[in-house]
Amino acid sequence: MAKAYERIADELRDSIRAGQLAPGDRLPAESELSERFGRSHVTIREALRVLQTEGLIEKQHGRGSFVRQPRTKVRRTNERHQWEKDRARISEEQRSETGAAEHDTGLTVNDLVFRASYRDGAASPEIAKAMGIPEGTPLLERVYRTRYSAERAPLGLITSHLVRERIEANPDLLDETKEPWPGGTWNQLLTVGIEIDRIEELVTARPPTAEEAEELDLPPGTSVLQLRKTSYDTEGNVAEMSDVILPGDRTELLFTTHLERW
């Protein structure tokens, strides 16, 4: 049998999903809900906690609880990699029209706010092992954030690693002011003669760090998906490795595998 706070949460949830409480609407105060349902403030708070954990409402300090605005959904498929590789060799004008974030969200270039920062680094033992390079190898570390202009949180947290020696032939690849780069990493690597042959992606789920939860504006209790993408060139070397932290409440991963017919 459902507990009192669960029944209250069910009724409020139904009101939200039916549109009786629209995104941005303020929920009645705890005292009003307590009187309406004939339950204690403790029970009301527990019901609201359930809805907050589900990402349906958010609490604003000193103002109360509000229906949460729906977040932009991101669907990331494994078929995107061939799309990105094909796109790397088309004209710059065509490459400038769209990017991977637009591909995954259905938004346009004008809908998105993008920023990038570069810094020099050295391969830690963990990164060196993952990339198959000596520990301490000079790297270029790139951090990317893209968000929908109507939202405050980015779509994901991306940190990319490139072996500096392999890209120094094109000084533009070391310059963050050249971002956003039409055609992304695939085209950047093409300018120094590197062709990507295969992609490996390892996906794990875990609780977010405090910093990740804050930056992604995650509802309490929401996990993140950690995707490590390793790109290998045609000689079998790691050309680029990136760690992508994706919010679990608004990310879909779709894997389509085409099989040979008998």
Describe the structure.
The protein is an alpha+beta fold. 30% of the residues lie in helices and 29% in strands. It has 10 helices and 10 strands. The strands form 3 sheets. It has a 6-stranded antiparallel sheet. The protein has a two-stranded antiparallel ribbon with strand order 1-2. Strands 3-10 form a two-stranded parallel ribbon. A hairpin with a 4-residue loop joins strand 8 and strand 9. Helix 1 packs across helix 3 and helix 2 packs across helix 3. The longest helix is centred in the first third of the chain and has 14 residues. It is elongated and about 70 Å long. The termini are far apart. The model has no long low-confidence stretch (mean pLDDT 93).
Task: Give the tags.
10 helices; 30% helix; 10 strands; alpha+beta; 262 residues
Strand-helix topology:
Blueprint: H1 4-17, H2 30-37, H3 41-53, E1 57-60, E2 64-67, E3 74-77, H4 80-87, H5 92-95, H6 100-105, E4 112-122, H7 125-131, E5 138-148, E6 157-163, H8 164-167, H9 184-190, E7 196-206, H10 210-216, E8 224-233, E9 238-247, E10 251-254
Parallel strand pairs: 3-10
Antiparallel strand pairs: 1-2, 4-5, 5-6, 6-9, 7-8, 8-9
